[in-house]
Amino acid sequence: MNYQWYPGHMTKAKRMMQENIGLIDLVIELVDARIPISSRNPDIDELGRNKFRVILLNKSDLADAEANRLWMTHFKDKGFHALEVNAKSGQGLRELQGIVREACREKIERDRKRGIKNRPIRAIVVGIPNVGKSTFINSFAGKACTKTGNKPGVTKGKQWIRMNRELELLDTPGILWPKFESEEVGRNLALIGSMNDEILEMTQLAGELLVYLLAHYREQLAARYQMSGVDDRTTAADVLAHICENRKCYKKGQEPDYDKAASVLMEDFRNGRIGRITLELP
Ligand code: G4P
Fold it and tell me: Global pTM?
């Protein structure tokens, strides 16, 4: 399948980031814990060159716990400040203020030497569509405020959000990039729902997900759809046919509705109902 989705509003959003980057000390990059490499936008590396960086492994509740540990080690080994979080529940966010301070230690020190007091760290929050940026900002604003007793307020134009005396955030729209490195990257982004589903061949995509799940998460898959006898010989088509039966996906005249079964599977996967699944490992 040809995965490509770079609508005009993303070009515009990228320009907005380029225009603001001069004001920024820190890039807070949200990645999806289920696809921590495929969800990293190479344009952000270019844009955020020479800026401090924190990587948030978000939606960690949907990803394999062991894989999360491997990814955290991977990013730390690469010299990044990284944190495993669940923006929805707020888990992990308490540690962020400390990590931001650590990541920006050089700037804080520089300001102190120059006698500049109380200049907040300015951070840009970036990530692909649907990675959880809004959820993160809302949750973190809550946490940051409980901690400092400050109220979040909007400052300097509408996208700047004042978290507390130490930190201001610039929210940005989720963007992808014009050409994915490989079909696998495109497929992973499509699977987690960062692309517009309307441009995708969903039943084929579900088939590819099934091939992966059969190879790596066979027991969880079998348990979710009460399928017995799943083994090395079981194919994606077998599972899809079973989901038709198990979830009563039929067209008129009892003909199996594979498209419907595919959408059941995709929704179950995206909502974590098959279990905690990671699609790529370091
Ligand atoms: P965006 O601004 O980057 O586009 O993402 P947004 O915050 O709108 O989040 C996209 C979806 O991901 C939302 O679900 C949100 O609840 C969910 N989400 C964000 N962070 C996490 C996380 O750490 N774990 C889990 N499990 N989900 C997360 P939604 O279905 O669109 O909305 P809702 O029904 O949850 O309100």
Answer: 0.91
